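step=encode ok
step=design start
structure_in=
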């Protein structure tokens, strides 16, 4: 039976985590699939490039990784100190590299004039996204 991530991860205990993901049903992530004869080696660089891109957005550092034919391993460090130093604008810019975000966030990032209530809501979004960027 699976366990919820919130019950597995405790950044107060350790900021380092070994994570893995695997393919199922004989699917190949990369390398040569002897069953089908197809070569998926080109995907290995895709995975490495995506890890580098995501570690530049999230407050996660990749300490080590291994990309195997049907799975990969990563050792991650949650850099919560880095994320706490980000101001509202930086948090929102990082988040919107992956997701479009609400219209209000988009307006904030382009420099539109916002009212007090709108700025408070933008700050709430930033706090929520900061937590997600450290998770």
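sequence_out=
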């Amino acid at each position: 039976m699976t366990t919820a991530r919130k019950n597995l991860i405790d950044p107060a205990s350790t900021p380092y985590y070994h994570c893995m993901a695997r393919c199922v049903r004989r699917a190949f992530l990369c390398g040569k699939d002897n069953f089908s004869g197809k070569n998926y080696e080109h995907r290995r660089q895709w995975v490495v490039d995506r890890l580098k891109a995501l570690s530049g957005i999230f407050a996660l550092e990749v300490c080590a990784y291994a990309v195997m034919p049907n799975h990969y391993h990563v050792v991650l460090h949650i850099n919560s100190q880095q994320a706490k130093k980000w101001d509202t604008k930086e948090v929102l810019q990082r988040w919107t590299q992956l997701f479009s975000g609400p219209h209000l966030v988009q307006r904030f990032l382009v420099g539109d004039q916002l009212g007090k209530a709108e700025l408070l809501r933008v700050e709430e979004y930033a706090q929520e996204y900061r937590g997600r960027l450290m998770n």
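step=design ok
step=annotate ok -> DSSP finds six helices and three strands in the chain.
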